[in-house]
Automatic annotation (TrEMBL):
Localization annotation: Membrane
Lineage: Eukaryota, Fungi, Dikarya, Basidiomycota, Agaricomycotina
Residue segments, region Disordered: 42-63
Record-given protein name: Secretory carrier-associated membrane protein
A Gene Ontology cellular-component term: trans-Golgi network membrane
BP GO annotations: protein transport
Amino acid sequence: MSRSHTVTAARTTSTRSALLPLCFAIMASHAYVPNENPFASSQDLTFDEHEGNPFEDPPKHPAFDQATADRAVELERREAQLRVQEDNLRREQEQVANIRRNGRNNWPPFYPLIFHSIKDEIPMDSQLLIDRLYKLWLILLVTLIVNMVACIFILISGSSNGGRDLGSSIGYIPVIGILSFLLWYRPIYNGYMKVGIFLDVAMCHTHHILHPKKEQALYYYFYFFFGGWHLVFSIYMIIGIPGTGSAGFIQMIQSYTGSHIAAGILGTVATVGWIIQGFGNAFYYHQIWKHHNAQGHTINGAKTEFATHWAKRSITGRKATGVAAARA
């Protein structure tokens, strides 16, 4: 038993003696180098400029950058347009308000009583409508004058009703001319106005309302009522019944049949004038009626606006009276 242990120990000693030279050789090939990182990788970690840095964000696509830039430019352009529109609207409102405050009346031109400017006071999309109505009113005025001249020639021609025709035709010029402007043209002008005001028909003054951007139903009902009566009057004048102050169709025919050519020609011009302004006003009456229904105006709303206006006017009048009394 002791002999086997002795043999094993001898073999172990001989094996260790054989391995020692091998270990010294390996240690010599891996000699220690100062300041060397033993954990460093043997691979080169420098970045190739062609391959790029793997830790950087991937480059953006050129098309994506261009689309983003285009959207930004478009947004800036729209913002600039909105700013310009806001500035123009504010300037227009200030201009109209300043005109109203300072009383820059310009109509009628020979004796200015009120301010009238379709370009300055009416929104762009409604200017054509109001401009046509104003021209129809001017045609009415010219027709009234021609009608009066025709009645003079009818009187000269020996008509038994010539005196009444002439007297009535003279009275139509101031009465119909002024009332048509105040009772149907001016209300619808104010109805489409940028800055809401109320027309004092008796004094032809204007007053600011509480909500300037909201259409007022009261203006439309003024227009529909008096504009409707004007259409009836136009039909009446087109017919031309003798003794009514109209040189319309019947009077025109009688003048031609009686060989009174001058009276007949003037009667023809007057009849054409009544037809043009009558049918023109009927057409735009229908257009305004459709707009009125689309806006949802009601008679109750008009009554409320009327009551509010007169209440505000009475309060303003009492304040003005009190201030005047205090100054006295």
